[in-house]
Amino acid sequence: MKITEDSQSWWRYALVAAPLLVIVGSLSGYLANSGYGNEWFEDLNKPPLMPPGWVFGVTWTVLYVLLGLALALILAAPASAAKRMAIRLFGSQMLLNFAWSPVFFGLHQPTAAWLLILAILSLSAAAAWYFAKISRIAACLLAPYLGWLCFASWLNWQIIVLNAA
Hints:
6 helices; Ferritin; mainly alpha
């Protein structure tokens, strides 16, 4: 069954899901000492298209809000096999997403982080496909995230290449 933006109950889910994703995502990055304040990261060679640090904070905040809104639309949908699979895929990719900063910035493992981001991208694309079966709007809300994951995958790969021993 399709749901639309005029469904009433999805806002209740959104009021919890969006802030929760922003908080957990921010906490993951903070605890991993992610970003330009990390000495190890500062010393890495970076690709010319590497955005300034503030872009990452703004981008991830917007993306987590969009992900929360998309998830809320799915949570408000009637029970179905597609909904169960969509939630499993979404939850799995979010767990991996929250693990990326600790792997890259905390453990200093860019190759493992790149493999992780490829898994995140794959699970997110599958989640978007299942979201589309339930709500086209929810699937569209995942599009900027998928685009950013592609760019972030390229950045991660370039850091590996530019810093090969």
